[in-house]
Amino acid sequence: MRNGQVLVKVPASTANLGPGFDTLGMALSLYSWIEMEPVEGNTVVELYGDDLGGIPTDKTNLIYKVAQMVFAEAGVDMPELRIAMYSDIPLTRGLGSSATAIVGALVAANALSGGKLGEDELFQIASRLEGHPDNVGASLFGGIVVSSWDGERAEKVRLEPHADLEVLVAIPAFQLQTEKARHALPAKLDLKDAVYNVANSSLLVAAFASGRLDLIPFAMRDKLHQPYRAPLVPGMSVILERATEHGALGAALSGAGPTLLALVDRKSARKAELEAFLLDTLRAHGIEAETKWLTPDKRGPELTAGAAGNQGSFMERIKGEVNA
Ligand code: HSE
């Protein structure tokens, strides 16, 4: 890397974790890499990876726009940028790919402008841009992030994930727009259902905070969003109802979906059974999916600043870490 370049590795995230709609997030060991530097000529956006077609490469690019917001806030002027991005996080699947782009852009642009904005300011900007703090909080801080957003300010507490927590995701081959999955939700909820979610979300946070993995099967249940989104993901209801019978600690729709997620005890002897159950259930409903075994990411974004003499291409710099 050259002087003046910065490279940020940002974790994917899963939002909601069942009952904690727009509130709970967990960072996952699946990553995007964003490199950024000011240039003299015209802005260029280089995209690497299989799934990034359709992302704009001009100044309407989200990473470019977020970077310019940071420069404006920090009072610096860097109108032309070279941006390179590689991602192992599939788009529009409920694994927080847009949140990683926002967080990566914020961290990179902040580093380029001398680190003028603190973590909290970055979190406020990211929550405002996403409209909810769950994915961006997890990608920005790593671990499990419990957050509350009142439309103006986001507050959060980060929890260290239990060392035995492992995460199985089943990523369907189809995309589901968050907007569509949010439109499926009712405008009003029954009070009983609201209480059910407050109780389970609170218990789930307490279970994570106190290391009580045994409470996850009870607490990771939801009546606020998943029942309404189930018709959008064939096979989802069966998986949510029965994953614990096949060795999961709990199962949830990852964010707005369509990815399904199971929390698993690392020491479980039933991992193959659970994986087969997820894939077979989705296939029986006509859905092809890919599974991945992940762990909670505990570090959040990792920033590398360029130094003289450290050359090579972007892909060479991240080679060995990426799935490509
Ligand atoms: N909490 C959000 C939702 C996450 O479930 O709609 C997806 O952006």
UniProtKB/TrEMBL annotation:
<dbReference type="InterPro" id="IPR006203">
    <property type="entry name" value="GHMP_knse_ATP-bd_CS"/>
</dbReference>
<dbReference type="Pfam" id="PF00288">
    <property type="entry name" value="GHMP_kinases_N"/>
</dbReference>
<keyword id="KW-0418">Kinase</keyword>
<keyword id="KW-0067">ATP-binding</keyword>
<protein>
    <recommendedName>
        <fullName>Homoserine kinase</fullName>
        <ecNumber>2.7.1.39</ecNumber>
    </recommendedName>
</protein>
<feature type="domain" description="GHMP kinase N-terminal">
    <location>
        <begin position="61"/>
        <end position="143"/>
    </location>
</feature>
<keyword id="KW-0963">Cytoplasm</keyword>
<dbReference type="InterPro" id="IPR013750">
    <property type="entry name" value="GHMP_kinase_C_dom"/>
</dbReference>
<keyword id="KW-0791">Threonine biosynthesis</keyword>
<comment type="function">
    <text>Catalyzes the ATP-dependent phosphorylation of L-homoserine to L-homoserine phosphate.</text>
</comment>
<dbReference type="InterPro" id="IPR014721">
    <property type="entry name" value="Ribsml_uS5_D2-typ_fold_subgr"/>
</dbReference>
<keyword id="KW-0808">Transferase</keyword>
<dbReference type="InterPro" id="IPR036554">
    <property type="entry name" value="GHMP_kinase_C_sf"/>
</dbReference>
<dbReference type="InterPro" id="IPR000870">
    <property type="entry name" value="Homoserine_kinase"/>
</dbReference>
<dbReference type="Pfam" id="PF08544">
    <property type="entry name" value="GHMP_kinases_C"/>
</dbReference>
<keyword id="KW-0028">Amino-acid biosynthesis</keyword>
<dbReference type="InterPro" id="IPR020568">
    <property type="entry name" value="Ribosomal_Su5_D2-typ_SF"/>
</dbReference>
<comment type="pathway">
    <text>Amino-acid biosynthesis; L-threonine biosynthesis; L-threonine from L-aspartate: step 4/5.</text>
</comment>
<feature type="binding site">
    <location>
        <begin position="90"/>
        <end position="100"/>
    </location>
    <ligand>
        <name>ATP</name>
    </ligand>
</feature>
<comment type="similarity">
    <text>Belongs to the GHMP kinase family. Homoserine kinase subfamily.</text>
</comment>
<keyword id="KW-0547">Nucleotide-binding</keyword>
<dbReference type="InterPro" id="IPR006204">
    <property type="entry name" value="GHMP_kinase_N_dom"/>
</dbReference>
<feature type="domain" description="GHMP kinase C-terminal">
    <location>
        <begin position="205"/>
        <end position="272"/>
    </location>
</feature>
<dbReference type="GO" id="GO:0004413">
    <property type="term" value="F:homoserine kinase activity"/>
</dbReference>
